[in-house]
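Sample pair:
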Amino acid sequence: MASEAGVEVARDYYDSSDAIEFYSTIWGGEDIHVGIYDDTRDIREASAATVDTMAGLLGDLSRAYVLDIGSGYGGGARRLVSKHGAGRVTCLNIAEEENARNRKLTEEAGLSDRIEVVDGSFDALPFGSGGVDVVWSQDAILHAPDREAVLDEVARVLKPGGRFIFTDPMQADGLSDTSALQPIYDRIHLQNLASFGFYREGLKARGFEEVEVQDRSRQLRNHYARVAEELDARRDELSASDEFIDRMIAGLGHWVRGADEGRLTWGIMLFRKR
């Protein structure tokens, strides 16, 4: 798994001025996750479509307490409350600058009474056991130093019957030669990625039942390709150096190639705690 140093690198990266400008200008400013491009090419709209698709699998959220782990700028949480009627959401995230922006955007949306933002790590959740109706996560668990610990913590904080819904960029099941993914591992300071099989086995071992798993791997390719295209087209709008932008485009290209080659996967996973 990723080292603790890798987590520090991820936190420093997401809190850097270049990254903040990139995500707020190119990615849409509210989300840092993979979008669904079935009906749009717009990154912001595609990101919202992912939230809507996930929320649709959960049904009525009006009385639900949702914990969003690795919540980024909180776009998912705000949409869960404003569009899907979630009763209360706590955002848990390790990057302080992201959390500050989340609080600001949440206050501007008039949702601070229903959304709380907490600084912390999802492999040591600062919450009691058995009090959460839904744990929600979008494309964050890959950064965890110990993904097994994240699953332990999710199982601990959920009520019996509580649900865990999440997405994560993953490597394909049964991938024996991972050398082609090394540029991705190096860039995000990981030794590997999880897989559908990893999550299925890990959650089953912790007493979860699978409700629905949607393999939407093509959307991973679509998303990184669109972000790279948009970044290149709008580079003059950014204060970041050409070196940063070129490096980012090259990194996005590794994800596109990995998906095209069938080495990378992505999807929506919903499990229920027995």
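The chain has a mean pLDDT of 93.
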